[in-house]
Amino acid sequence: MVSIGPYHYDKDKLKLGEALKLKLTQQFFRDREPQIEVLHDKIFKEIGELRGCYDEEPTNKYDDEALAWMLFVDGCSVLRYIHCYADKKFDELKIKNHEIAFVRQDLFLLENQLSFQVLKLLMSDNGMEKIEKFILENWRKQPTPPPPQQKPQPPPPQQQPEIAPCHLLELFRTELVGKPSKQDENTGNKEEDWQSFRDVTVLRAAGIHLKRSKTNCLHDVSFTYHLIFGYLSLPPLVVDDSTKAKFLNLIACEMCPEFDNKFEVTSYICFLDSLIDQADDVKKLRKKHILHNFLGSDEEVAKLFNEIATDLVPSFDIYRHVKADIQKHYDDIGKAWMAEFVHNHFSSPWTFIAFIAAVAAFAFSVVPYIKKDQK
Hints:
This protein has helices spanning about 15-30, 35-45, 45-50, 55-60, 65-85, 95-105, 115-120, 125-140, 170-175, 180-185, 200-205, 245-255, 265-275, 280-285, 300-310, 320-330, 335-345, 350-375; strands at about 210, 220-225, 230-235, 235-240, 290-295. It is mainly alpha-helical. It folds into three domains: about 10-140, no CATH class; about 180-330, no CATH class; about 340-375. Helix 1 packs across helix 5. Keywords: Membrane, Transmembrane, Transmembrane helix.
């Protein structure tokens, strides 16, 4: 729909998108036309550095003036869209609802990324606040209220990174991943025998229950014990028709040779895929308000994560302590046997009531014989 940056610029099928960007740029300068030349000059003065943000092949065919104009229009239109989206003033964009949705998806395509330096040169004093609000609206907003006993807390504000993000997708990834836990930071050399085929259904039978994490950050995964049961906490996630594209682009971003990272998104997808083997696993995650399914059937959600995770290799350090604790619980024969007994015989209130009734009936039938023996 919309091309941002030089990679797909001037393609015939995206001509309508160019007209849309000009429309948004005009809105961006409404009531402040004198700033047009000032902001354009800012871009032009930095064009040498901005050109270096892209590969040579897509930018060589444009001289400095043409490239500066391209980045100027792209930056202004992106900021205009983000401002209206963050403030929920969609009507001010003067575009149709499906165009709003398509532009939002296009902004998170890896090949559509605009150098963040362009946005910094063009944005106003509250521009960064609008961008962060836009990202939060696109990822952490929950469509349904969580259970009262597990109301998620807003994630702690991220400290401004020492190095500015390269582009919007990288900033999106930083907010999504969150700060690593102390356990993740202590990598160590302990080996684990993690069995990736143990899905939610299998773990549930071993006495491992699901809980919703307090934040939406991908690092907010933990495992705790209570008596014979274990509790795996996972961050809530909205699954809709944009989820696959977002994750694939985030994963592609992590695969870029020049991007130094720990493959947190890749590792999260692999971990989630190990928990989801069939529709019933998705159903259990939905019931605990961990997955919010706006995609379709539970089968479609299971298939979605299985497809995204194909051929991915996770970091062995991410979630290593969680995996080790799960394995330890699973290998505890006593706990596993007791948990399986409870799961098989007391999986519903009715089976528990029936058990109590049977015990009571047995007790009442035995009491008369005990009294006779005492006599």
